[in-house]
């Protein structure tokens, strides 16, 4: 994975004096780790939450029980609530979320393994993208992070 995108995100965030928070489920902290590989990331990266269970999604990030019941943890609606929740909880300008199924088990016909949702929220605009990834658990996690970085890069403009 190229570090060019992460460096560009860092430059844009510092130039605009914006801060970022991350909430991850299926990637287990890999997005936070990747972003903080950039020297000086403490100037714009406030923190991250690995919300692997629905309990943590609800208790820490404020995801509604009704959202999880109706749409599930791997959904556009949940990704949005997680991104908004981490932005508010960590008091940052932007929140980004990743939720999905890295496998190898747990998939359904409607939500197969490799289904990932990335949400980004800045309090004014919210963006969510559904990704359909293939490969091993590790490959799906790495690809999800790489694509989340590209989505964030475009969101910051």
**What's the rounded overall pLDDT mean?**
97
Strand order of the largest sheet: 2-1-3-4-5
| Strand-pairing-aware structural class | alpha/beta
Order of helices and strands: HEHEHHHEEEH
Count the strands?
5
Q: Radius of gyration, rounded? A: 14 Å
Spans of at least 5 consecutive residues with low confidence: none
Beta-strand percentage range: 15-25%
| Distance between the amino and carboxyl termini | 21 Å
Shape: globular
Share in helix:
40-55%
**Largest sheet, described in full?**
5 strands, mixed
Tally of helical runs: 6
Structure, explained:
- It is built from six helices and five strands, in the order H-E-H-E-H-H-H-E-E-E-H.
- Helix 1 runs parallel beside helix 6 (137-156).
- The chain has helices at residues 4-16, 30-35, 54-59, 65-71, 76-89, 137-156; strands at 20-24, 45-50, 94-100, 115-121, 126-132.
- It has a five-stranded mixed beta sheet, sandwiched between helices.
- The radius of gyration is 14 Å and the shape is globular.
- 42% of the residues lie in helices and 20% in strands.
- By secondary structure, the protein is α/β, with parallel strands linked by helices.
- The mean pLDDT is 97.
List the topology elements.
Layout: H1 4-16, E1 20-24, H2 30-35, E2 45-50, H3 54-59, H4 65-71, H5 76-89, E3 94-100, E4 115-121, E5 126-132, H6 137-156
Parallel strand pairs: 1-2, 1-3
Antiparallel strand pairs: 3-4, 4-5
Helix pairs in contact: 1-6
């Amino acid at each position: 994975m190229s570090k060019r995108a992460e460096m560009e995100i860092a430059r844009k965030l510092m130039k605009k004096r914006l801060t970022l928070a991350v909430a991850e489920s299926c990637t287990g902290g890999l997005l936070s780790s990747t972003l903080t590989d950039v020297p000086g990331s403490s100037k714009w990266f406030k923190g991250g939450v690995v919300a692997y269970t629905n309990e943590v999604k609800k208790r820490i990030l404020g995801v509604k029980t009704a959202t999880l019941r109706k749409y599930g943890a791997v959904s556009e609606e949940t990704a949005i609530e997680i991104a908004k929740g981490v932005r508010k909880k960590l008091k940052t300008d932007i929140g980004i979320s990743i939720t999905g199924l890295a496998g190898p088990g747990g998939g359904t016909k409607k939500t197969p393994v490799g289904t990932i949702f990335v949400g980004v929220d800045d309090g004014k605009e919210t963006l969510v993208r559904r990704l359909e990834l293939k490969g091993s658990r590790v490959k799906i996690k790495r690809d999800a992070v790489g694509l989340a970085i590209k989505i964030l890069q475009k969101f910051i403009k």
